[in-house]
Amino acid sequence: MDEKKLIEQKIFNDTSAYQDIMDLPYRPSKRHPQMNQLDRAFQFAPFGALGGFKDLIQEKTSNYARKKYSDFALENQINRQLAYLQKHSLEVDVNYFNEASGYYEHLKGTLESINYKKGRVTFAGISIIIVNIRLIKLINQK
Asked: Distance (Å, rounded) from C-alpha 103 to C-alpha 63?
């Protein structure tokens, strides 16, 4: 037997320190009533406090059920369009997935800023996640 197993056996199997109390009879408390089995089980349920969390996750995932994930070609096209809009102040119609509502929405305005570190762009004061953009169209200029 290796040394680690011997140490574990000595720590977890050695009851010699408790020999004086090992054979004492069980005496229920006179002050505290005995807890029923169901309550006793609940106190050891580690995730009991997260009961409503499952519903919240299901609600959020149902929002994303309508999301269409873009492919590499679409992501490249969106990035090229954003780079162009950085140099040219043009009014555009942006079709993007709004993660709060779970639907695709349209936003009209000009590009204000791009934050590549955070993966976000700002159009008309509204910050959008770049990968949530599905389409950018130019609005007819007069």
From this structure: 7
* Spatial separation of the C-alpha atoms in residues 111 and 14, rounded to whole Å: 72
What residues does each domain of the chain span? 72-138
Q: Which two tokens stand for residue 80?
A: 């090229």
The model scores a pTM over 0.85: no
Please calculate the CA angle 85-77-73 and round it to the nearest 5 degrees: 165
pLDDT computed for residue 140 by the predictor: 75
The more confidently predicted of residues 38 and 104 is 104
Mean pLDDT across the stretch 45-63?
Answer: 73
**Residues 69-105 as b or e (16 or more Cβ within 10 Å = b):** ebeeeeeeebeebbeebeeeeeebebebbbeeebeee
Position of tokens 């000009």? Answer: 110
Helical spans, DSSP H, in the chain: 3-13, 37-43, 53-64, 72-87
The CATH architecture to which 72-138 belongs is Roll (2.30)
- Residue 100 tokens read as 């709060």
